[in-house]
Automatic annotation (TrEMBL):
Main location: membrane
Protein name, per record: Diacylglycerol kinase family protein
Keywords from the named record: ATP-binding, Cell membrane, Kinase, Lipid biosynthesis, Lipid metabolism, Membrane, Nucleotide-binding, Phospholipid biosynthesis, Phospholipid metabolism, Transferase, Transmembrane, Transmembrane helix
Enzyme class: transferase
Matching Gene3D superfamilies: 1.10.287.3610
InterPro entries the record matches: DAGK, DAGK_sf, UDPK
EC number annotated for this UniProt entry: 2.7.1.-
Species annotation: Danxiaibacter flavus
Record-stated family: Belongs to the bacterial diacylglycerol kinase family.
Cell location: Cell membrane
Bilayer topology annotation: Multi-pass membrane protein
């Protein structure tokens, strides 16, 4: 296999992201969730450390969902029909996304809920 230059590598990765967000239902859902999360972070003026944590959570969920999608495509290519081992592979890959998503929701709650409570209690600023 011919080695690609750095520009081709980035181009391929960007095309993969475009495919993912355009064609994968879960990618679209997670993109909307990420946009809402970033918007909430801006609105609630979260700290630099909170931004780092949120961005790592968003990246983890996106990355795992992209890997899950790739694993599903490979499984479908290799074994188009049902196979119990393919089901296990797909289920475990989906579980990895679920674990990251649950952890990310918990992190979001830890960061945002106290700020929202302060705001709702009429303290005016966060």
């Amino acid at each position: 296999m011919k080695q690609q230059n750095i520009f081709s590598t980035f181009k391929n990765a960007i095309e993969g992201c475009g495919y993912f967000f355009k064609n994968e239902r879960n990618g679209k859902i997670q993109l909307v969730a990420a946009i809402i999360t970033v918007g909430a972070g801006i609105w609630l003026k979260i700290s630099g450390m909170e931004w780092i944590i949120l961005l790592l959570c968003i990246a983890a969920v996106f990355s795992l969902e992209m890997l899950n999608s790739a694993i599903e495509r490979i499984c479908d290519l290799v074994q188009p029909g049902f196979h119990p081992l393919v089901k296990i592979i797909k289920d475990v890959a989906a579980a990895a996304v679920l674990v990251a998503a649950i952890a990310s929701v918990a992190v979001g709650a830890i960061i945002f809920v106290p700020k929202l409570i302060t705001l709702l209690n009429g303290h005016g600023h966060i």
